[in-house]
Amino acid sequence: MDTVVLKRASKTYHLDSVGVSALSDINLEIRSNRFTVISGPSGSGKTTLLNIIGCIDRPDQGELIVAGQDVGKLSDDAVSDFRARHLGFIFQTFNLLPVLTAYENVEYPLLLSRVPAAQRKQRVETLLEAVGLAGKGRHRPGQLSGGQRQRVAIARALAPSPQLVLADEPTANLDSHTGQAIISLMRQMQRDHKVSFVFSSHDPQVLAAADDVVKMRDGRIVSIQRRDENEHVIEDCAL
Ligand code: ADP
Ligand code: MG
Predict the structure, then answer these.
(1) Which of 135, 191, 204, 217 falls between 20 and 30 A from 127, CA-CA?
(2) Can you tell me which atom of ligand 1 is nearest the CA of 41?
(3) From ligand 2's centre to the CA of 41, what distance in Å?
(4) CA of 22 to the centre of ligand 1 (A)
(5) For the chain, give me the number of helices (H) and strands (E)?
(6) Beta bridge partners of 235
(7) DSSP code string of 150-208
(8) How many whole angstroms separate alpha carbon 190 and alpha carbon 17?
(9) What is residue 192's three-state secondary structure?
(10) 122 CB neighbour count, 10 Å cutoff
């Protein structure tokens, strides 16, 4: 099954009565349990597409199905609820709460979804260990490096066991060495947790780790390349 299906989706922004077409007529299927990267030059519509898939923004036209749910049929409140239950986000600037420790940052989404205390503790400890931060639970974000903060953000995104994790250029604020370590970790977490990742990026290191690469230009998809587990290209279509 596909995690995301977009049919004929369009989005236009209006600036001083001038319409800017950010996405036009997007048809896209994103496979479950895969690492999909949306790539393309600046202004090509990557962030807009990611925000729509992440149910942060709605398309003006078209249909969006995420994890089997027709999102267009949900009210704004129901969309927020759906997002909290099924989607995880990793932000470029990490977006950790500075007054909370690493442990508390990962625990936060579990508190919001009222997971019982014993289960929370186990989940947070397992995730902190999985991202290589077992000894850093009591550190606040200000006491961690950029790479460590991104590890906390990955653990937090995965905490509520989402079906889909989204990130907008997650390595943009990391040096290439740290970026490579973070990509390997994300790749590992994506496989271990059997979750779908959809990232936007033009970082060659991120593109190299992807199963599927969706290339955009001027608000349109220009090609989709899909690879199997052995990194063989199984589909390569220019649109
Ligand atoms: P990318 O992430 O690939 O750089 P974006 O999705 O941010 O591209 O932008 C796509 C197009 O939509 C660009 O032309 C951009 O200027 C325009 N755009 C994006 N967000 C807004 C907005 N809030 N208001 C007006 N125009 C916007
Ligand atoms: Mg962008």
Answers:
(1) 204
(2) 3
(3) 9
(4) 6
(5) 7, 11
(6) 226
(7) HHHHHHHHHTT--SEEEEESTTTTS-HHHHHHHHHHHHHHHHHTT-EEEEE---HHHHH
(8) 43
(9) helix
(10) 11
The verdict on pTM exceeding 0.85 is yes
Closest-CA residue, ligand 1 atom 27, reads 13
Instruction: Give how many domains the chain has, as a whole number.
Output: 1
Asked if residue 39 lies in contact with residue 202, where contact means CB atoms within 8 angstroms, the answer is yes
Ligand nearest to the CA of 16: 1
Q: Whose CA is nearest to atom 16 of ligand 1?
A: 43
Residue 206 and residue 190 in contact, taking contact as beta carbons nearer than 8 Å: no
Which of 225, 205, 229 shows the shortest CA–CA distance to 216?
225
Gap from CA of 16 to ligand 2 centroid (Å): 21
Domain range for 48: 4-238
Contact predicate 70/63, CB 8 Å: yes
The CATH number of whichever domain residue 181 belongs to comes to 3.40.50.300
